[in-house]
Amino acid sequence: MKVAYEKPPSETPSEFGLSPKEKKELYYLLLKCRMFDERFRKLFRAGRFAGTYFSAVGQEATTVVPSYKLLPQDFIGPAHRELGCNIVRSPLKVIAAQIYARANSPDKGLSHPCHYGYKPANIITPASTVAGQSVLAVGVALAYKIRKEPYVALAFVGEGGTAMGPWYEAVNFAAVHKLPVVFIVQNNLWGESVPARLVGAFEDFSHRADGVGMPGVSIDGNDVLKVWETTAPAVARARRGEGPTLIEMKTYRWYGHSEIDPADYRPKEEVEYWKKRDPIPAYEKYLMGNKKLTLEEKKQIEEKIDKEIDEAVEFAEAADYGPVEWVLGDVYADFKADAPDRP
Ligand SMILES: Cc1ncc(C[n+]2csc(CCOP(=O)(O)OP(=O)(O)O)c2C)c(N)n1
């Protein structure tokens, strides 16, 4: 992995230092994201829910870390691989119900699996149209600016999505109007089976920022502390009204585009290379080396997460599907079939 374009953030990292307790909490969230993801891959393969499943294993740091310590009023515009944002801000049972497409999901079970959104967490259900969420995030940021509210929107997209016209329009508009947005581009080298080199004629996707007059930076998206030290200043800058930032995070998805994709278009060596750069053991090693985490604590955290996942799966599996009228109810005015209480 080459990062040719790394620029220092505008503030010194120490201003945004995490306490030992917060560092441990971040570890818990990263591990929860990984364990939930691996469990749901298995559940899909066991036929426990339909459709497909979009795993984000390997990319956890790029979503969990930027979502950590945001204000509740801050907004997140995720795409289909942003499980980590939801792990930080939404109850697991809500996420599980969405994947299972059950009536108690926030989207009434009507969206595609892994299109997680949860209004109380200020996370919008992503549009299936790639990059659509970046347009929405910019709209929300514009509202924050007009209302003079000190809140920030995070807009996530894959490197593939940055080739979309609407994404460019969103980034350009945010730069012109100095909107409080942080654009996070997760460059995992592949958009379905299309390699990054066929999407942008450069090594670093942060160059996309150059043409719109926005600061852009490329970083190792598998380095937990680096992600924090880059994202936190960008969020603070947006909150101060100084405008948007684009952060390219270089990372990798370990598995296929979704669970129905064997991903045999990728060289084995590439997969192995990135698996050795797993963000979670590297962070764990850092914590243990600095005596901020013990093996015993790690075991306790794993047991706690396992239990939380069991409960979320039970919640989803105990629920029904919504009636078919709900499909029409959200399209035609004549079909008024609103869902009952949802989580
Ligand atoms: C406009 C549009 N074109 C194609 C698709 C199908 N599609 C869904 S995700 C995806 C790949 C997106 O790649 P990237 O933005 O790099 O994100 P990643 O899947 O790698 O996380 C494609 C082609 C879509 N949903 N919308």
Tally of structural domains? 1
CATH-defined fold name: Rossmann fold
Helix content: 40-55%
**CATH classification class:** Alpha Beta
Q: Structural class of the helices, strands and pairings?
A: alpha/beta
Provide the fold topology.
Layout (H helix, E strand, L loop, with lengths): L19 H26 L14 H8 L7 E3 L5 H7 L2 H8 L32 H15 L6 E6 L6 H12 L4 E7 L2 E2 L2 E2 L20 E5 L3 H16 L5 E6 L17 H8 L3 H11 L5 H24 L6 H5 L14
Parallel strand pairs: 1-2, 2-3, 3-7, 6-7
Antiparallel strand pairs: 4-5
The structure holds thiamine diphosphate.
Structure write-up:
This protein has 343 residues and is of the alpha/beta class. The chain has one domain: Thiamin diphosphate (ThDP)-binding fold, Pyr/PP domains (Rossmann fold, 3-Layer(aba) Sandwich). The chain has helices spanning 20-45, 60-67, 83-89, 92-99, 132-146, 165-176, 224-239, 268-275, 279-289, 295-318, 325-329; strands spanning 75-77, 153-158, 181-187, 190-191, 194-195, 216-220, 245-250. The strands form two sheets. Strands 1-2-3-7-6 form a five-stranded parallel sheet, sandwiched between helices. Strands 4-5 form a two-stranded antiparallel sheet. Strand 2, helix 6 (165-176) and strand 3 form a beta-alpha-beta unit. Helix 1 crosses helix 3 and helix 1 (20-45) packs antiparallel against helix 9 (279-289). It is globular. It starts with 19 loop residues before the first helix and ends in a 14-residue tail after the last helix. The site of thiamine diphosphate has 15 residues, from strand 2 and strand 4. Thiamine diphosphate binds next to strand 2 and strand 4.
